[in-house]
Specification:
single chain; mainly alpha
Length: about 240
């Protein structure tokens, strides 16, 4: 079993296959949810919101790996296009604008030059507001509104399905990424010998995956940014 695992994880294209898998799962789940009548009495209706949220987060995490060149190591073109595709699917985010900001975050973590830093203030909502201002644009909102209306008025998708399985999960995913990728690991004071100004959640691989694709192992990510999300647990 260990030999099979090593063969899979050491394959140059493993990250690409995993990234494509995330895109396919997100697409199939979204298609299913948009094409079925909502049964408000069935618990699966609400469970699928969480599933779709998790897959939205998976899109961003794949883009994040692309920012570090780990989807396909040493293949800049594939990393760029995987990043552009996955960020676009996540409510029209712009990969090329996010890329330099994320590298600034790694280079200047916890300083005034860090685009994710909130002046040392731990107020959750003020920090979240700054985070949204930094990464959400009016262009995205406009494109999302246009897409929503096209899907409802021209394609015929029920509006409530669009809200429940496209809009709500994307917003919840934004919270998920902010909480586990920015607020929890970077809030408060850090030890002087902590070069990354980041902390990690406790060692629980199942919760680490469910909560945010092992992104809670945040010190490990800053320490070894070339490690893809699906191998971060090995660094814990």
């Amino acid at each position: 079993m260990s030999a099979v695992y090593l063969k899979i994880v050491n394959n140059k294209y493993s990250g690409l296959y995993i990234g494509i898998g995330v895109i396919l799962l997100w697409s199939l789940s979204l298609y299913y949810n948009l094409s079925h009548t909502i049964d408000w009495s069935h618990p699966g209706t609400y469970l699928m919101v969480l599933v779709q949220m998790h897959l939205f987060t998976g899109l961003f995490i794949t883009a994040h790996d692309a920012m570090h060149g780990t989807v396909v190591p040493r293949d800049r073109k594939i990393n760029l296009w995987m990043g552009r595709i996955t960020t676009s699917l996540f409510l029209f985010n712009n990969f090329d604008k996010m890329l330099p900001k994320h590298h600034e975050h790694h280079r200047f973590a916890g300083t005034e030059h860090d685009p994710d830093f909130h002046n040392g203030n731990e107020n959750f909502f003020l920090w979240l507001f700054d985070f949204i201002k930094e990464y959400i644009s009016w262009k995205q909102i406009l494109l999302a509104a246009i897409t929503h209306n096209i899907m409802v008025r021209l394609v015929g998708v029920p509006e409530i399905n669009m809200v429940m399985y496209w809009i709500v999960p994307s917003i919840l995913s934004l919270f998920q990424l902010f909480i586990f990728g920015t607020y929890l690991p970077h809030r408060g004071e850090h030890d002087h010998d902590n070069p990354h100004h980041a902390r990690s959640q406790g060692k629980n691989h199942l919760w680490a995956f469910v909560s945010c694709y092992f992104f809670g192992y945040h010190y490990e990510h800053h320490d070894k940014p070339r490690t893809p999300w699906w191998r971060l647990w090995e660094e814990k």
